[in-house]
Amino acid sequence: MALPKKIKCFKYLVYSYVFLLALTGAAQIFLGTSLLWGHSVYYGIVQNKLWAPAAILLCLGPVTFILCWMGCQATNQRKRCLLGMFAALLVACICVQFIICGWSLAMRENLPTSVEIFIDDSFVEFLDKFSRTKVDNLHLWNRMQSQLQCCGVDGPLDYRRLSLPWSCCSRPEHAYESACDTHYKRGCLAVVSEQIKSRLLITAFGAAIIAILQSLGIFCAVHLTILFGKNDNTHPMNMNRKKKQQQFLPLTIQDKRHDLPSPINLSPSAPGQRVLKTALPPAMHK
């Protein structure tokens, strides 16, 4: 296949690859946003210890869209340096996503011990307020117990002699009132741990799948960069430019001697020509 045809073929492949990159960037933003939104339910308890992988995945979405623009510009304008930078930055983003995958799986293995400390400290503070004064109905623990359908850290027995809050009632008779017939049996530690484990697993597999999809077209971008270089070297205008540059190179002294015209032997019998008389050296006059 001729070189221009190869370049045209790989340009269309790179365009298709850029479209795939745009889809993966949208997937990064959607996945990261949904994971962070689910994490907001118990953010005040586990603080910022477990949302970092999802946040990094979300930030990689806009970076991917910038790389898409860079790839299109480099392909349209045939800029080898920009296309090479596009491929290098893309490899870096793929490596970051594989790191996110391993990091999420490692954090998942440390559960629930890493969450238990934060939940115990937060529940002790909530229990102290609940025993002395009336706690705000929109307190974090009331909202979490109501939304996650759990009660206490390990179960309803964590409230000991205190009456259960309204958020522990599965079917409260009146809103924000503690009187209820049935209550949730599961502790919030188990529910929160399960949800965090599932979200970390989704983060790990999502980052790995997106990284694999983004790595499919790196070969096309790298090969197109090489083809651009070959085309620049074989282009007629570039060849003429190189020839002109060689003509204006400085000559050495020996090259200058070789370039001098050879003396012409003028014959006295040649018509229309005259013999050049030169002065003889002093020794020749004797």
UniProtKB/TrEMBL annotation:
Keyword Membrane appears in the UniProt entry: yes
One Pfam family, short name: Tetraspanin
Task: Specify where the region named Disordered lies, as residue ranges.
Answer: 260-286
**What keywords would UniProt list here?**
Membrane, Transmembrane, Transmembrane helix
Location of this chain's protein in the cell: Membrane
| Entry's transmembrane regions | 12-38, 50-70, 82-106, 200-229
What SUPFAM superfamilies would the database entry show? Tetraspanin
The answer to keyword Transmembrane helix applying to this record is: yes
PANTHER family the record matches: TETRASPANIN, TRANSMEMBRANE 4 SUPERFAMILY, ISOFORM C
- Which protein is depicted? Leukocyte surface antigen CD53
Q: Which organism is it from?
A: Drosophila hydei (Fruit fly)
As recorded in Swiss-Prot or TrEMBL, the protein's gene is named LOC111600011
